[in-house]
Each structure stands twice: as structure tokens, then as C-alpha cells.
Amino acid sequence: MKRQPAAEENTDFEPIPVETRLGNALSQTPLLDIHTHLYDPAMGKMLLWGIDDLLVYHYLVSEVFRYLPVPYEDFFALDKEQQADFIWNELFIQHSPISESCRGVITTLNMLGLDVNKRDLKNIRKWFSKRTVEEHVNDVFELGNLRGVVMTNSPFDREEIQIWKRGFKRDSRFLAALRVDPLLINYKDTVPFLREQGYDVRPELDETTRSELRRFLSEWADKIDPLYLMVSLPPEFTYNVETSRHRLLTKVVLPFCRERKMPFAMMCGVTRAVNPSLQLAGDSMGRSSIESVENLCRTFPENKFLVTVLSRENQHHLCVAARKFRNLHPFGCWWFNNIPTLIDEITNLRFELLGLSFTPQHSDARVLDQLVYKWTHFKESLILTLGEKYSALEASGWEISDKDIQRDLKGLLGGEFETFCREESQNK
Ligand code: RAT
Ligand code: ZN
């Protein structure tokens, strides 16, 4: 079947193909995006949106250097609009924009109603300059059929903590997640920051330090009301080693999550700054230890783990691990996996091994407008993968009703995640 949203009317009396019914149901199922880098509009400049932010997205920054031998520093010395001009010219005018990140910009502009064929960046800028953030948020949420997005909230980001401390009226569509990378990745260097914030912590994890770290997490959780606690981990992360990270995890983070009945989200497999000159675009990836995920799930049955992995080679093992542990919920086709080829493959693996008990996608949007393409492209894939599974069932004599489809989609697009967050861990 062709990769396109299926939404057609039944003009004759032939039975409607299941893919068409799936496409129709999909356009009527509001979804929850469980991991983004977007912010509540009340957080002001932190919420990125508009054409220039779309063009300087770090996924596109790394692609532009594929074509031009410009020194990195020269590019980063330009202001945002100049960088965007540069990227537009190189990736959209001098070459056809076929990569996933480039096509994403085109899908987004097209769905926002702009004539992409004019290839006129000035005009596009003019269109955006007339919009307010409020109307843009509403339009993007409507186009993506979103009911909510989960932010990534860092209690280590000075700009962000000022905003939370000042307080603001929250937009209920923007939910929180507490991100603690500096704590688990780089604890020793984080001690001075924590002390400056009024927590009596030391590099050694003595009793006072542990209880102060719990106080830090508690106060932030009370302030922002997160759905889960999260961290991204390097490929070499393993459980079972006597490191300070291990002690932090088992003596501070996991007990805290248990107490709050909150999942702990692990995003496994990122190697930060393999090319530091590329700044935010310089991260790479590696294969992680799913054995460690299994160890954690077994050793801490009262904890709930949300897990996504960056390496394609880890995807199959993660599915198998989730078959063994009810307290493990795989989610998303993360970052370099968020391309049609891998989305199809990973989602099929998960359907075939886990049925519908996982969350197939999150957007990771850093710019509001990206919600439009990241979800549109994902839905194109879902119509193919889930449509094929339904067709196969029908071929075996099992009829799929519209109600079945609606129920399944509700689960896949946020419902299964919400149930997982709500429930006590059942792995006891
Ligand atoms: O997808 C991204 O934009 C990455 O840079 C990361 O933010 C990643 O998703 C993460 O959450 O660490
Ligand atoms: Zn992310």
C-alpha cells in the first residue's frame, strides 16, 4: 500500500479496507506526545517556534556540513537568521530536501498552508512574523491532533529554574518530566551547583547527602508535578558495578521513584559530543546493555521503567526484555531511529513481540512546528504497519471493528503510557 494518510469516503458499497478505516480513526484520536523538548508558552523564549528555529534544528545543522567545507566556527558565529539562510540555500535550494529532517520542514510548511513550491524564504518569514505564539500553539495542536505534550524539565538549567521559581499559570496541555542527567552522569561536578542551591550535599554519598538529594528531587517534583523522572545514558552504562552512579541510582533515584510511584525513564545509548565542534549536533550513539535493563527490572520489581534505545541493534532485545518484565515499558523511535525505514521496522518488531502494550512513538520536537511533521510522518507509518497486522488478522477470519481500532489507537497514542504511569508496578 502507498505511504499516505488514508481518509476516504465510502462512495459505493464495497467493504471499506481496514487501512482506510484505520486512517479515519487515526485522524480522530487525540494523542499524547510523551517526550518533547517543548515548553509551556508561559515560559516565553524557551518555547521555540517558527521558520528560523525549524531551519537551525540541530538535525539539519549536521546535514548542512555534509555539503560545504565551511569551518564550524564560521557557521556558529552567524546569527540565527543567517544560519537559517545558509541551511535553506544549501539543503533546500541547492539539493532536493529528501532527508527525513528536510522533508519534515516541507511537510510542516505545507500543512500550515504555505506554498512551499515558491521556495521563498522571505515570504515564509513574513507569514510567521504575523502570528502570535498562542494561535500558533492552537493551530499546531489541532493539525497534529494532540491532546498534550510532555516537556523535558531540567532543575539544573538556570534559565528554566528561574521561571519555575517565579511561578506562572500553567497551560494544561504541557505536562512535565523531571530530567536529572547531571545528577547521574556527572555527579561530582554537580555538587557545587547543588550546594549553591541550598542543598547540603558532598561528593561522597553519605547519609546527609542522600537525604538532601531526596529533598532536592522532592521539592522539584512538588513544584512541577512530573509524570516521570528521566535520564539519558551512554552506551557503556551498566548496572551491577560499584560506581557512584550505581549508588545514586539505587540509593536515591529509584527509592524516590518508588515512593512517588513514578516511572523512571532511561534513554539508552547516546555518546555525547563525538564531534564537539558541531555543538548540539555533535552527539552520536552506541549499543547499550539491555542485560542491565533486565537486571534493574528484576532487582527493583517495585520500580517502573520507561525505556527507549538509540541503537537499532538493541531494539529486538528490548522487546524480548519487555516480554519478561511487566515493569518495563518500551517507548518511541528515538532520534536517529525517527526515520521511516526504522520506524516501520521497530514498530513491526514491537507489534509482533508485544502486541499493543508499548508506546510506539514520541516526537522529541524541539521546535513547536515539528510536532506537525513528526506526527504526520509517524501516522503514515502506523497506517502501513498496523494496517498490515489488521489485514493479516482479517485474512485469518478475525474481523476488526471500528471500535477495536479506536480502542487500540487510544492505547498506542498515550493510553498505554498513562496506564503504566498510574498503576503500581506489577512485577512483584
Ligand atoms: O532528539 C534530540 O533532539 C536530541 O538532541 C536529544 O535531545 C535527545 O532526544 C535527548 O532527550 O537527550
Ligand atoms: Zn529528547
Structure, explained:
- By secondary structure, this protein is α/β, with parallel strands linked by helices.
- The mean pLDDT is 96.
- Strands 1-2-3-4-5-8-9 form a seven-stranded parallel sheet, with helices on both faces. Strands 6-7 form a two-stranded antiparallel ribbon.
- It is 50% helix and 9% strand.
- It has helices at 18-26, 51-55, 58-64, 72-77, 80-93, 100-111, 121-129, 133-144, 158-166, 181-185, 187-196, 207-224, 244-260, 290-299, 315-324, 340-354, 370-395, 402-422, and strands at residues 31-33, 146-150, 174-179, 226-233, 264-268, 270-271, 284-285, 305-309, 328-330.
- The protein has a single domain (27-422), classed as Alpha-Beta Barrel (TIM Barrel).
- The two termini are 44 Å apart.
- Residues 37, 232, 267, 335, 364, 366 line the site of D-arabinaric acid.
The CATH architecture can be named as Alpha-Beta Barrel
The stretches of 5 or more residues where confidence is low (pLDDT under 50) are: none
Broad structural category: alpha/beta
Intertermini distance: 44 Å
Q: Any idea of the CATH class?
A: Alpha Beta
The percentage helix is: 40-55%
Q: Which fold name fills CATH's third level, the topology?
A: TIM Barrel
Can you tell me the overall shape?
globular
Q: What number of domains?
A: 1
CATH homologous superfamily label: Metal-dependent hydrolases
Radius of gyration: 22 Å
Distinct ligands:
D-arabinaric acid, zinc ion
- If helices are DSSP runs of H or I spanning 4 or more residues, what is the number of helices? 18
Order of helices and strands: HEHHHHHHHEHEHHHEHEEEHEHEHHH
Give the strand content: 5-15%
Largest sheet: 7 strands, parallel
Number of distinct beta strands: 9
